[in-house]
Amino acid sequence: MASREEITVYEDEVRSRYSHLEKMTDLVAVWEVALSDGVHKIEFEHGTTSGKRVVYVDGKEEIRKEWMFKLVGKETFTVGAAKTKATINIDAVSGFAYEYTLEINGKSLKKYMENRSKTTNTWVLSLGGMDYRVVLEKDTMDVWCNGQKMETAGEFVEDGTETHFSVGDHSCCIKAVSSGKRKEGIIHTLIVDDREIPEAVE
């Protein structure tokens, strides 16, 4: 049988471990948004009695409104290094039920991610025990690695272009080659230390 002191210590341990969750009793929605500088977590608290609204981005409080008489509406804030515009819409569904939708740059999250898959390529790889997420923005040819915009050097080669950059002491190159098919357009391939990296699906 555990003594009362042991139980108290255990309860304190549990309480401190979950204290941030205890504060988030009004958590109603969590979204994960993949941007060029990383995958960002957006959490939203909505107190349907007090009208309280709290928005967290990657665990950091961005917006806090304690007393709101209007329970529906929207909250707008920015996400990530590029300060991408995000809006949470709060709509009444019926009675005391609410629906929460996230828009990124004015598009629903689903539409935004579908569009993003056309305008970016993402690769996830492991080098020397470290995980890296490399993102190419096709329209600007900007390359991001683990949240940092990389210094790149581009060159024209016989069958397309090559964008060179390095990650640690590894040489990386994104090759852009025409597929020869109009629908597919240009195919981008990441090569690290002469090894082709398969594209990730986010």
What is the secondary structure topology, with strand pairs?
Elements (H helix, E strand, L loop, with lengths): L3 H14 L1 H5 L3 E9 L2 E9 L6 E5 L2 E6 L7 E7 L4 E11 L2 E8 L2 E2 H11 E8 L2 E8 L4 E4 L2 E2 L3 E5 L2 E8 L2 E9 L7 E7 L2 E3 L5
Overview of the molecule:
By secondary structure, the protein is mainly beta. The chain has two domains: 4-111, Beta Barrel (Lipocalin); 116-197, Lipocalin. Helix content is 15%, strand content 55%. It has three helices and 17 strands. The chain has helices at residues 4-17, 19-23, 109-119, and strands spanning 27-35, 38-46, 53-57, 60-65, 73-79, 84-94, 97-104, 107-108, 120-127, 130-137, 142-145, 148-149, 153-157, 160-167, 170-178, 186-192, 195-197. Strands 13-14-15-16-17 form a five-stranded antiparallel sheet, with no helix packed on it. It has a four-stranded antiparallel sheet with strand order 1-2-3-4, with no helix packed on it. It starts with a helix and ends in a 5-residue tail after the last strand. Residues 7-22 have low confidence and may be disordered.
